[in-house]
Each structure stands twice: as C-alpha cells, then as structure tokens.
Write a structure and sequence with these properties.
The chain is an alpha/beta fold and 395 residues long. It contains eleven helices and 21 strands. The chain binds flavin-adenine dinucleotide and 3,4-dihydroxybenzoic acid (DHB).
Length: 395
Amino acid sequence: MTVTSRTRVGIVGAGPAGLMLSVLLARRGIESVIVESRTREYCEARQRAGMLEAGTVAALRAAGVGKRLDAEGLEHDGIYLQFAGERQHVNFRELVGRTVTIYAQTEIVKDLIADRLAAGGVIEFSASSVAVSGIESAAPVLSYTDSAGVPHEVACDVIAGCDGFHGIARALVPGLSAYERTYPYAWLGILADAGPSTDELIYSRHPDGFALYSMRSPEVSRLYLQVPADESLDAWSDDRIWAELQKRFALPGWSVATGQITDKSITPMRSFVAGPMRHGRLFLAGDAAHIVPPCGAKGLNLAVGDAIVMASALSALLLDGSATLADAYSDTCLRRAWRATQFSYFMTSMTHVLPNDPFDDLAQLAQLRYVTSSPAAATSLAENYSGYESPKFES
Ligand code: FAD
Ligand code: DHB
C-alpha cells in the first residue's frame, strides 16, 4: 500500500546542494523532504572536496551551520604553485582581500544533516526506486520506496534535482544541451594520518605529472597525483604513492610527511555543463547539472551557490508568488558555472602534463611564470580561486 504525503519542495539527493537547499528553505519556513539513495553513514564518510571559497564560508555561517567550521576550519591566505624547481606563493588576501578555508565536505554534510534532523526535517536515507513525475504540472510527485520496502508518493509544489552527476533528474529536462570535455588523466587521491609539512596547499607541476598537497586538519593530509585516465588502483602500492609524491614535490631540504594511508581512490576528470537547469517545476542544482575537473576546487562551491540561488528563487515563488527569480534561475547559475568551468579548465591545463608534448610543456611553464610574477595575472587567479560572484541568500 502506497503511503501518500505532501510537502512544498521535494529534494532528490542529500549531498551539499540538497542539504544546503533544505536548510535555507527551513530558515524561511518552507517545508521540504529529502530522498537519498545511500545510507547516512555513506553520505557522511564519502571523501571528496575540502577547499571552500570565502563566499561559501560566509553562506554556511549565515545559514547557522558555521559553528564547527569556525572552530575547526583552516583559513589560508593563498596557495603555492610549484614548477621547474621553484615554489611560489600567490597571496589572495593581499591581492583581492579574500581568504579560502579548508574544511572537508564530509564535515559540511555532517553539519547540514545534523541541523535538519535537529529541526525535525525529513531525510529519507537508503531510498530506492526514486522517481519524479508531473514536472510540467503545478503538483509534481516525488516517489520512492523506503528502507523497509514501503512505497511512498510525496505531492510537491517544486522538485529539486540535487542528485549528482549520476542521478535521475537531469534526464527529465527535455531539449537539454550538454557541453563536455574529457581529459586523458585522472586523480589518485589519498587521505593519510600525517601532519602536513606545508602551511598552505601546493599545486605542483612536475615533468612526470601534477600533484596537489592538501590537508584536512593539523594531523591529516590529503594528497592527489595525476595518473593516466584508465589507471587501476592496484598499480599503486602505498610505497609507490609516497615515492611519487616525494618526487613531484621535491625541493632541497624539504619532504612530504608520511603516515598511514586511510583512504585511496581514483577520480576521472571531466568538464560538463548542461542547461537549462530548470524545466517547469523541476530545478537542477550542483553536479546534477555541471561538473568540473577538481583542480581549482570549484565543484562543492558551485553546488552550494546553486542551492543559495534556488532557495531565494523558491522563497519568492512559493511565499510571494513572484516567478522573476525562478525564471532567471538557470541563467544565473549557468553564468557562474561557466566561469568556474573555464577557471578549472585553465588550472588543469596549466598544471597537468601531457606525454610527449614539448610545446605544451613550455607554454605551461610560461603561464606558471606569468601568474607568479605579474600582479595582474596573479590577481585574476586569486579572484577566481577565492570566489568570483558568490551568491548570497537574501534573508
Ligand atoms: P553530490 O555530492 O554528488 O550529491 C548527490 C547526492 O544524490 C548523493 O548523496 C547521491 O547518493 C544522491 N543520489 C544520486 N542519485 C540518486 C537517486 N536516484 N535518488 C536519490 N539520491 C540520489 N569541489 C570543491 O568545491 N572543492 C574541492 O576541493 C573539491 N575537491 C574534490 C575532490 C574530489 C576527489 C572529488 C571527487 C570532487 C571534488 N570536488 C571539489 C567536487 C565536489 O565534491 C562536488 O562538486 C560536490 O559533491 C557536488 O555536490 P552535489 O550535492 O551537487 O552532488
Ligand atoms: C582539495 C581538492 C581540490 O581539488 C583542490 O583544488 C584543492 C583542495 C581538497 O580535497 O582538499
């Protein structure tokens, strides 16, 4: 027997986009239901992003979920770019008056879930057969089967597709245009119980491939290596990973602090932008509509930004009956998504090595020298990295 219920906004996916949307809607008194195919434990443990733009930090604070972020986040003034045996600092605080903050996506997801559940919000974890219908009507329906096998139908005013790149929502938009670029490399990422031997992130271009030194806390490092696109994790023993990291970050008198590796994965790299991000009563947000290669740290920031724009648009639509922001939603989000897409492409192309391409090698080195010596070029990088045009939730 199908259980029927009603809410104002049905949200597919409990990632950063769906959770942030639900939190912001609740601040306006708008009820929502989140349906998520994974368990809560899985969502809270999925290792992904870690670098937050200044605007994302401000938005999490303004939404009332910044307490642990303020206590545990690591504020950085800029990043290091390493190439041809040099390590140069680009200081965002000096160049554009903004900083960035390391605070793991796992922690943001935990904070947002805790906030929703404490306020009596509904998140249906471990849902199956998730489907959306009636998006061209004023009463779309979100249906799913709960973890006990009971089928549900939730009547909604609006559905938010926040279900990531492999979700179901994007395919429901008729006449969708998608633009894509794939790259011939991937990132092997590790998490290690090792205090970072750097105060800020290092983006290193080495002739054997790119490497990124990031962190999660004063005790935990997060490191990435460029590997071929079709690489298998089996080819990378812990010893081989550390040796490759030492080589790609090498500077005289300095080394990468090593420790127990607690997580290891390979992520393919792709740029993908699809629009429009709205059809009828269905709105897409985050990775459901666009993904960027991780270099430049834009994905999570874009997902949170879309949620902010959508929350403002849905507040106006559902509380005031004004469709102006809802009608502008797709264009507003795609404009920012394309800026981030171009920046991520720029950061990736400047630092990742193609085999046997000496023209590209020399052009990359020229670009790296330019962004680390010209204040104009450094300012452009700083403005984009720390967050260009971050949206604000008008409350
Ligand atoms: P997701 O986080 O993918 O959430 C979607 C949710 O929907 C998931 O919980 C999924 O289980 C659920 N779902 C899927 N299908 C269904 C369905 N049919 N029914 C119900 N639920 C469903 N970004 C940054 O900004 N900074 C970084 O430093 C950074 N580093 C990264 C490093 C790596 C290695 C990777 C992989 C990504 C990184 N990103 C980074 C990108 C960032 O993690 C993503 O952009 C972000 O997770 C997008 O959030 P989202 O809510 O849109 O989607
Ligand atoms: C991290 C990931 C990135 O892609 C990046 O550019 C910076 C930081 C991270 O996981 O910490």
